[in-house]
Amino acid sequence: MxxxxxxxxxxxADELEARCKxxxxxxxxxxxxxxxxxxxGKRIEEVVQLLSVSYRSVQNGLxxxxxxxxEEVLQRIRGHGSSGAPGAYLTPLxxxxxxxxxxxxxxxxxxxxxxxxxxxxxxxxxYKGMHDLLYRHDCAPKVPRPQSNKADPQRQQQWKKGG
Length: 163
Description:
Order of helices and strands: HHHHHHHH
Structural class: mainly alpha
Largest sheet: none
Distance between the termini: 80 Å
Helix content: 55-70%
Shape: elongated
Strand content: under 5%
Number of helices: 8
Number of strands: 0
């Protein structure tokens, strides 16, 4: 025996279809399609097969719909941050300043960049957030490895040359 979904639908199937046709973002359109198929009475398993998505993602979409309606479902897009703040925390000019500092070798670690951004502009990044920002722009803190006090630079150069 198959259980039917118990959802208090606000939108009709036609409204969901119209929103789906107007949507430009693929992820949002997929979610609208899933809701549209469910609204028409299809089972979750059928929707999963039709859209080639995971069972869990359809369940999550239904939970979001139950708690906050269609706007809640469409708001939860990966990569848009959980704080609801649009885009990056730093302006493009501030980002260039961070990248310049990295290129000059002033940051030894990502944590140094996080602390500097907090002290300079009052913008708090997480470690992962700053790391991802630097990674997206092919910019990472690079400093030479520490050398031993006993190291002989002249002998090392001779060894590199094959001598």
